[in-house]
Write a structure and sequence with these properties.
2 copies of one chain form a homodimer. Helices cover about 65% and strands about 5% of the residues of chain A. By secondary structure, chain A is mostly helical. Chain A has 3 domains: about 30 residues; about 80 residues, Winged helix-like DNA-binding domain superfamily/Winged helix DNA-binding domain (Arc Repressor Mutant, subunit A, Orthogonal Bundle), CATH 1.10.10.10; about 40 residues. Chain A has a 3-stranded antiparallel sheet with strand order 1-3-2. The longest helix of chain A is centred in the N-terminal third of the chain and has 32 residues. Chain B binds a DNA duplex through helix 1, helix 2 and helix 4.
DNA sequence: CACAATTAAATTGTGCACAACTAAATGACG
DNA sequence: CGTCATTTAGTTGTGCACAATTTAATTGTG
């Protein structure tokens, strides 16, 4: 579980034999699983930390966007978070039911629904200020290391997005 | 979007003012969001690549485990993937309905359900061999870089797990 | 102005993650 | 042997992600 053998013999050439492909399959399991596991481990930690704010992790992300940008149409919130209305509509309804946000149709454009903070939602920010520090501490990483990891992940994300668009151009 | 200002002035001391905490909140958004986004971008890519195998991403992970280890009780599958029966039971039923795995109660221990591959499930491995290469290519990362990222993520995961256990010791 | 194309939310349906709980089998111990 | 704690799957309920579809408003064009 330390420093994988790394089947570099098969790194550059086409799939010829069978053994290198096996290694790739095992490696693939490790990579995709590592990311998946890290994401879920983060989720578990946030679940604990956010419990007394009464927020789930995706709800917290939405609140972060609103705290930073003020009121926004659902569309814009979705652009910030890479989420569509299929995910956001029910989530925002739950935040509204919790009294943290209000949602109202824009007068200028009746298609658009503008999401804003209630007083309670704005006040919650004060209690949220201590969240990042607890999370950062739990990672055991320093700021530099965190920023480095973030940069790699962001690069990975945009590369993956680009690759997905090549295979599947009919996507927004 | 390049090299964040990094509010290192507030890195070591307690939250005194307001501005540094604001920065932390913004930073937190970036970190957790980056991981979340990368995980979902990976998911989208796998969704496309796995489409003609008829597998979802979590189902693919289960198949990887079975291809590598042969038949296993549900419990063991869950240990490999960090998933409990609440997630695995319905997932395995879908794989069984698809004709890829069979599930049968162990004779030795009637509590345990052993999951094994059908001929069709074993045969699917052949078509899956080309998946890792497509994924690796899409990341735009070399093997070294992938392994490095994986190592960081694994370290992050175990640190996060340990931190969660400190806050919440009643967890397996 | 009329009408087609586009856009924004919402809805529907499928599948995953996870907490909480249930049911059944096993194992330990008096 | 009987009883109780533990273990293993499964079930239920909540919430998120995402594809596909629907509805309504807006924009563009003739």
């Amino acid at each position: 579980m330390t420093t994988t053998p790394a089947p570099e013999s098969a790194a550059g050439d086409a799939v010829s034999g069978s053994a290198p492909a096996d290694d790739f399959l095992r490696l693939d399991q490790q990579i995709c699983f590592s990311l998946n596991a890290a994401s879920r481990a983060f989720g578990s930690l946030y679940r604990v930390v956010l419990k007394d704010l009464g927020l789930t992790y995706p709800q917290y992300l939405v609140m972060l966007v609103l705290w930073e940008h003020g009121e926004l149409p659902v569309k814009k919130v979705g652009e910030h978070l890479r989420l569509d209305s299929g995910t956001l509509s029910p989530l925002l309804k739950r935040l509204e039911a919790a009294g943290l946000v209000r949602r109202e149709r824009s007068a200028r454009d009746e298609r658009s629904v503008v999401v804003g903070l209630t007083d309670e939602g704005a006040a919650l920010r004060g209690r949220a200020l201590r969240v990042p520090r607890r999370i950062a501490a739990a990672t055991g990483f320093g700021l530099t290391e965190i920023n480095d990891l973030r940069a790699r992940l962001d690069r990975l994300t945009s590369t993956l997005d680009a690759a997905a668009l090549e295979d599947f151009p009919d996507r927004g």
